[in-house]
Amino acid sequence: MMSQQKPLDFLWFIPTSGDGAYLGTNDLARSADPAYLKEIGIAADRLGYSGVLIPTGVACEESFIIAASLAPVTERLKFLVAIRPGVASPAYYARLASTLDRVSNGRLLLNIVVGGSAQELAGDGIFLPHDERYDHAVEFFQVFNELLATGNSTLDGKYIKAIGAQLGFPPVQAPRPPLYFGGSSDAAIDFSAEHTDKYLTWGETPAQVGEKIERVRKAAAARGRKVSFGIRLHFIVRETDEEAWDAANRLISRLPDEAIEAARARFTKESDSVGQTRMWELHGGRRDKLEVSPNLWAGIGLVRSGAGTALVGSAKTVAARLREYQALGIDTVVASGYPHLEEAYRVSELLFPELGLGLPNHRLPVSFSKDQVFGGGGHGGNLRVVSGS
C-alpha cells in the first residue's frame, strides 16, 4: 500500500531547448528564453517539487548557468545539473560544482552524462569508444571527488593527469553533492554500481525496469555498496482517463511521418547509446503500437531523443502505475510534460494528493473561514458556505 511506503521524491524538468503544445511542429511552440524558464522554476518551487532536472547537450542552454539563474528566485528547489567527463577537466567541474552548491545553499544535485550522440561528443573533442568512455569517467571522478572532499588531488592516469590539483572552497554538502547517473549498457551498469548514488532509468515497462534495477543492485552489492533508484518519465494526467488519452493523441496530432523517419535516422546513425536503442525499440516508429504497457505511452519517443515515454491517465490510474515502479525500488521520479508550465500545475494539483505528497505547506491562508468556495474572482470575493439543514 502507498501509505506504507515512503513518499516519492518528485522532480520536474526545465525545457532549455524549447517547449510547446505539439510535437513535430512549430505551432504554439515556445522558445527557451530565460524569463520563461524562471516561470517554470518558480512554479515548480511553490508547487512542491523537490527539484528540477536541467538537461544538457548542444541544443540546450548550459545547465550550470541556468541553475545559477534559478537559485536566487527559488527557495527549496534543488538543481540536477550535468557533468560531462571530457568536456572540461575534473578540477574545473569541481570549481563549478562547489560554487553552485555554495550560492544555492546546498541545493545542487549532479547528473553524470557519459554518452549520448557520438557525433555531438566528437564536436566536444571526445573520440573514445563507448565502453572506454566509462574508463575515462572512473579517473575523472577520482579527481573530482577528492577535490570536493579534501580540496586536493593528484592522478597520473591513462586518461586524466592532474598534478597537485586544488579546490579553494568546499561545497555545502559533504563530502560532495549526490551523483545521479543513467545508462543501460554493461559498462554503464558497472560504473553506476561503483561510483554513483542514484541510478536513473528511462521509463521502460515495469518488467524491463525491474530487470535493470536487479542488475544494478547485484553489481553494487558485489562491491559492498547500495544504490538508490529513480525513473525519468513524462506525464499526461487529467481528471479522467479519456481526457488524458485525448491529450496524448493531441500532442502528436500534427507530427508528420517525415519527422518520425528523420528521428529514426538520427537515433541510429548518430547515437551509440544502448538506452536510446531500447527507447526506440519500444515502438519501432509505429503510431499503432504506442501503449507499450498499461498506461505507458511511447508517443513522445517517436521524435524526442532520450526519455520518450509518458504515463497517461487519471490521477488514480497514474498513481497506480507509479506504485508498480515504486514496488520495484524506485524512490525518485524526474517528471515533465508539454507545455511544462501548465503540466507542472496539473501534475501537482491532480497527482500529488494521490501520491500522498499534497501541496506545499507554506501557502498563505485565503480567508478566516475554511468554508468558502471559489466564486470566479469577482469583486465580492469567494462564496461563503452557510451550513444548515
TrEMBL record:
UniProt GO MF annotations: monooxygenase activity
Keyword set, alphabetical order: Flavoprotein, FMN, Monooxygenase, Oxidoreductase
Keyword Flavoprotein (UniProt): yes
Stored Pfam families: Bac_luciferase (PF00296)
Documented EC number(s): 1.14.14.5
Domain Luciferase-like: 9-331
Highest taxon above the source species: Bacteria
Coiled-coil residue spans: none
Tagged with keyword Glycosyltransferase: no
Gene3D superfamilies membership: Luciferase-like domain
Entry-linked SUPFAM superfamilies: Bacterial luciferase-like (SSF51679)
Similarity comment text for this entry: Belongs to the SsuD family.
PANTHER family: ALKANESULFONATE MONOOXYGENASE (PTHR42847), ALKANESULFONATE MONOOXYGENASE-RELATED (PTHR42847:SF4)
Listed name of the protein: alkanesulfonate monooxygenase
Lineage: Bacteria, Pseudomonadati, Pseudomonadota, Alphaproteobacteria, Hyphomicrobiales
Gene: ssuD
